Amino acid sequence: MSADDVTALVLFLFPLAYSPGPGNAIFAAIGAMRGVRAALRALAGYHVATFLVTALIGVGMGVAVVRHPIVVDVLALLGSMYVAWLSWTFLLAARSPAASRAGSLAAPRPGFWTGAAVLLLNPKAYYIVVVMFTRFLWSPPGGDVATALVITTIFTVNNLVAFVVWAMAGRGLAALFRSPRAARRLNYLFASVLGAVAVWMAMPLLG
């Protein structure tokens, strides 16, 4: 890829990664409730999955996923249910008497597979990758594996930086809500945000 191609790719990806979206909302919630350090394992899981899925689509092996409506529907259903479950766990944490007394944002500690599942069970993420490769690799034809891996790396690193920023923003927001009542309200807010993400992920089922 030329320097101009890389610049165009970054400009294409920047608003997708840094503007509010489902992935950002999830990691902002994790950052707020558990802290940025605790979010690192989930971030690692999400972005290892991002790299693998993106690379497979880039070399043509993963495109079949988005070509089969039943696969998309199953992924959308499972992904929506999983994020709804995350929302429920955060809601339970918000209702915890111990957390309320402490004024803390307690929630289950997310792990590597938490992050990986959020990516793997989100078919809309696959469509974004296909659009990216259609623009920067497959049109005009002739993109090779090396170029696909370069694009995959840029895409993954850009996403990772954005999600770390959002996790830090979530933690910064949580620091402003130290009283038990304020912390409880923020817990409910993030639980509601994750609930909205679950609905958004289920939208392919309604199409």
UniProtKB/TrEMBL annotation:
Swiss-Prot/TrEMBL keywords: Cell membrane, Membrane, Transmembrane, Transmembrane helix
Pfam assignment, any one: LysE
GO CC, any one term: plasma membrane
A Gene Ontology molecular function term of the record: amino acid transmembrane transporter activity
Main location, first listed in the record: membrane
Topology relative to the membrane: Multi-pass membrane protein
Location(s), subcellular: Cell membrane
PANTHER family in the cross-refs: ARGININE EXPORTER PROTEIN ARGO, ARGININE EXPORTER PROTEIN ARGO-RELATED
Protein name (record): LysE family translocator
Organism in which the protein naturally occurs: Aeromicrobium piscarium
Lineage, broadest ranks: Bacteria, Bacillati, Actinomycetota, Actinomycetes, Propionibacteriales
